[in-house]
Specification:
The protein is of the alpha/beta class. It contains eight helices and nine strands. The strands form two sheets. A seven-stranded parallel beta sheet has the order 5-3-2-1-9-7-8. Strands 4-6 form a two-stranded parallel sheet. Strand 2, helix 2 and strand 3 form a beta-alpha-beta unit.
Amino acid sequence: MTDYGRQLSFGVSLDPCAGTWALTRRLARTAEDSGLDYLAVQDHPYQPGRLDAWTLITHLSAVTDRVSFLTDVADLQLRPPVMLAKAAASLSVLTDGRIQLGVGGGGIPNAIASMGGPARRGQDMVAFSRQRIIDEAAADAGRDPSTLRRVYNVIGVIGDHGDGPGLVGGVRRWVDTLAEWAVELGFDTFVFWPATDPERQLGLFTGEVVPAVRERVDAIRSGR
């Protein structure tokens, strides 16, 4: 059992599809008005019809005031680390600190190579990504593991008759599951990836799931 006791935070993943950017902008505003903490944007620039993650985040930051943005995750094979850090730091200054940088090695080698990046696979990818157990990596860097945020991307459908990938079920199942992941596995940030009907699903997530998870976790922690 691992519970680092961190305050919970919640976000929603926004689809960067160019054909539905108006819906994406509307969802961003709804998420902010509903009190979510993060708007997450995936980074797959080789996918046709997808907007560039940084350009989309920059646009959405101009039409929101409070919510933070998370690259989920930026592709280090196509974005040189030094320039990526500079871009993130610059946008953080311009948005009063509303940028959180998530990075990864990239998961589709051939697609990455098609845009001029290296097609790393297997051990080459592991070595490039420098993947290690989080707590060990934090300790080696001189950081207390309990100070790190642990983010879980939750793909699924909220609804007793829902159908789709990931976590599927009614509000009660979502609350039970996310609360367990918080107090048993140590996750403190949950980013919802709606598998269908994003406007309705976002309403259920912010209106019913999020407050109930916060209440459940607070009750468990106070009873220990």
